[in-house]
Write a structure and sequence with these properties.
The structure holds two protein chains of two kinds.
Chain A (H helix, E strand, L loop, with lengths): L18 E5 L2 H27 L5 E6 L4 H10 L2 E10 L17 E9 L3 H12 L3 H7 L4 H10 L7 H5 L5 E4 L27 H30 L2 E6 L2 E5 L3 E6 L7 E5 L6
Parallel strand pairs in A: 5-9
Antiparallel strand pairs in A: 1-8, 2-4, 3-4, 6-7, 6-9, 7-8
Helix pairs in contact in A: 1-7, 3-4, 4-5
Chain B lengths: L1 E3 L15 H5 L9 H15 L3 E3 L9 H15 L2 E5 L6 H9 L2 E6 L15 H20 L4 E7 L1 H4 L4 H14 L3 E6 L11 H18 L7 H8 L21 E3 L5 E2 L19 H8 L8 H4 L19 H17 L47 E3 L2 E3 L4
Parallel strand pairs in B: 1-2, 1-7, 3-4, 4-5, 5-6
Antiparallel strand pairs in B: 7-8, 9-10
Classes of the chains: A alpha+beta, B alpha/beta.
Chain lengths: ~270, ~400
């Protein structure tokens, strides 16, 4: 069967989550591979911090059986309730779907954390997830309304809507992606905001990103700067046959992505990080 | 295979060379660090036991002392050595080195003059003289019992223009007489002045395959690989082995500063270091998209990443139709000969067992060690010295 345009997830292709990274030079690798763990950690820590500070009442949590004691201590110390939703095989990078584990597979429990007093929101989230109500899920996670609407429009025909966020009908497009809206490297752990923005310069996302970035600076100023620097670099994101290639001046990243039969290309001219 | 690329400079700088885009990036102007290269080769060899090839650019263009250190290193590690050269600079002192270090020599030449007119430097008269000299050197190598093979690139100038295909076939026959075999690689520059069109490639390669079958020449790639693959043998060229473009285990390059790169065919305007992983992602994608309905996908696995359509490895090989035609011909031939067509061609040539680092290993049934030289003992199907016959897969 000939394929046209974008496929629906699972319609024809089935790729497991996959990421890889090839460095441009030894020098880049020596400098940046040391920074990467702190860069992805500062984002993860900021994500939790926004929840602990009450900026968001719901937080998606991956409960790893190997860290069970530590996780339960954290829940107890913060008066949190965990609502489990599904088990998933542990995958590389970032995934747009959960993979049912086979017995013995390394796995985690996907679920949602709320404060004890917000238990109803936890139930609400579980219900919304079951019924596929992404608008409500996004609302509970405090994602901007414009981006929730965008998500509803593109998902799931495009699981990695980078090209769609540029808003061009051309297959090859040149633009400048604001670092707070830059989700091209999220599969590798690099992002400043948690959601898929409706545009590469979404005002609401930039506002949200400013707050999140402030928190990151408080947690690890240096790592926050590196993260912003990386997400501000000129880059090229292209997608074809379910694989996205992200070319940055430092490395080439490869990941599973949307299923474009014809190659789409976004040339990001970069952003001044200051 | 470990390809040592001290630099990519070559006095010939042939117009269609697949390394030209990398040269344009200034790669070849960087000074090499011989000690770093040697450290990397030692480390890689200890893990892989892969054949070491002094490659280039032109390996004979580096200072002879450095060149000898590389041959000596390979000999020390592997008991033999190997180079891929344009063949012009072969000399008696070099022959002495080749004997000392058990060197097998791969020569890049596209046939006799004028088939070879795209290769070389200077005026047509200069290039003609260079071609004659290289042919003379091949005979010299064989006279001195140096294992020798040839990589010929097949393009419009040796396979289409003025009935030159016959000259190319005569060239193959002459080489067979002196026990030289090799590869007939399709030219892939993206320039239609050189590259065979789809129709031309199908016609030329079908013609060459018939010729090989009629003459009984069994050692020329890609034809032997097509036959091997259909018979379920693992001795197939990397093109049919399933390529991961960020690791290319059949062609791990050691670059001028000792860093590890991938097959240079993958470098267009993007030079990158080798990934530490191996993945079957390309096969997985092509098997669900462009190659979905193809009978021969298990045999070719989408072909060469570096020769993919639009030079984008997410596409299948641009010579898909050619390979499909060869597989169809081979299937009929094998059937007529009463040979069994394998229903389960080799799928796990690289990255066997639990390895995910993209490096070939000594690993159970997938063995990558050249200590036991002899046709049939190899299971990786790539590059070997089999007595007097050299099988090198690169260039």
């Amino acid at each position: 069967m000939a394929r046209q345009g974008i496929l629906t997830v699972g319609e024809k292709m089935d790729l497991e989550p996959f990421t890889d990274l090839a460095w441009r030079s030894k020098e880049n690798r020596e400098i940046w591979s040391q920074r990467f763990p702190r860069m992805s950690k500062v984002y993860r820590d900021a994500e939790i911090e926004t929840f602990i500070r009450g900026m968001r009442k719901v937080y998606v949590w991956h409960l790893n059986p190997d860290n069970l004691e530590k996780d339960l201590e954290f829940f107890n110390a913060n008066d949190l309730v965990f609502y489990p939703q599904t088990r998933s095989k542990i995958y590389e990078g970032f995934s747009h779907k959960h993979i049912s584990p086979k017995p013995g597979d390394p796995q985690f429990v996907y679920g949602v954390l709320v404060r004890h007093r917000d238990k109803d929101l936890g139930k609400d989230f579980v219900e919304a997830s079951k019924s596929g109500n992404h608008q409500r899920i996004g609302e509970l996670l405090k994602y901007p309304k414009c981006c929730r609407t965008f998500f509803k429009k593109v998902w799931p025909s495009s699981v990695d809507p980078i090209w769609e966020a540029v808003g061009s009908k051309k297959n090859s497009v040149e633009t400048r992606i604001h670092p707070y809206c830059n989700q091209t490297l999220r599969y590798f752990g690099f992002r400043i905001t948690p959601h898929l923005p409706c545009s590469v310069t979404c005002r609401e996302t930039i506002l949200m990103g400013s707050k999140w970035f402030q928190i990151m600076q408080g947690l690890d100023k240096e790592a926050a700067y590196w993260l912003k620097e990386l997400l501000s670099l000129p880059s090229e994101w292209s997608c074809l046959n379910g694989i996205a290639i992200v070319k940055t001046p430092l490395f080439i990243g490869i990941t599973n992505s949307s299923f474009h039969k014809t190659k789409v290309l976004v040339k990001n001219l970069g952003w001044n990080p200051t | 295979m470990i390809l040592i690329k001290m630099n990519l400079s070559c006095p010939m700088a042939c117009s269609y060379c697949y390394q030209t885009p990398v040269r344009e990036e200034g790669f070849h102007k960087k000074p090499y660090d011989l000690d770093a290269v040697i450290r990397t080769v030692r480390d890689l060899y200890s893990k892989t036991k892969s054949q070491i090839v002094v490659h280039g650019g032109e390996p004979l263009s580096i200072p002879i002392g450095d060149f000898e250190r590389l041959l000596s290193l390979s000999y020390e590690l592997d008991g033999k050595s190997s180079i891929q050269t344009n063949g012009y600079l072969i000399s008696e002192p070099l022959i002495a080195l080749f004997k000392k270090y058990r060197t097998s020599v791969g020569v890049s030449i596209d046939g006799p003059w004028p088939c070879n007119e795209l290769r070389g430097s200077g005026s047509p008269e200069d290039r003609r003289a260079q071609t004659l000299k290289i042919l003379e050197n091949i005979r010299f190598l064989r006279k001195e019992n140096i294992p020798t093979s040839v990589i010929a690139v097949v393009h419009k100038y040796n396979a289409v223009k003025e009935n030159r295909l016959q000259l190319l076939k005569d060239f193959v026959s002459e080489l067979e007489l002196i026990q030289v075999c090799g590869r007939l690689n399709p030219c892939c520059t993206g320039n239609p002045e050189y590259d065979l069109s789809q129709e031309e490639a199908v016609s030329v390669y079908s013609n060459l395959f018939k010729f090989m079958l009629e003459k009984g020449y069994s050692s020329w790639s890609p034809f032997k690989d097509v036959l091997n693959s259909l018979q379920g043998k693992k001795e197939v060229v990397c093109v049919f082995a399933g390529c991961y473009p960020y690791a290319t285990p059949s062609a791990t390059t050691v670059l001028y500063d000792g860093s590890l790169g991938v097959c240079v065919r993958l470098y267009q305007d993007d030079i990158y270091l080798r990934s530490s992983k191996f993945s079957r992602i390309r096969e997985t994608v092509l098997g669900q998209t462009e190659c979905l309905d193809c009978d021969f996908f298990p045999n070719c696995k989408g072909g060469c990443s570096g020769m993919a359509l639009d030079f984008d490895w997410r596409h299948k090989d641009r010579f898909c139709e050619t390979y499909r035609t060869l597989f169809q011909m081979a299937r009929i031939y094998l059937k007529a000969m009463g040979c069994q067509i394998s229903r389960s061609p080799p799928m796990e040539i690289f990255a066997p067992g639990n390895h995910s680092d993209g490096i070939q290993h000594l690993d159970g049934s997938i063995r990558h060690l050249d200590s036991d030289i002899g046709l049939g003992s190899h299971t990786d199907g790539i590059e070997h010295l089999d007595g007097e016959t050299r099988h090198l897969d690169s260039g």
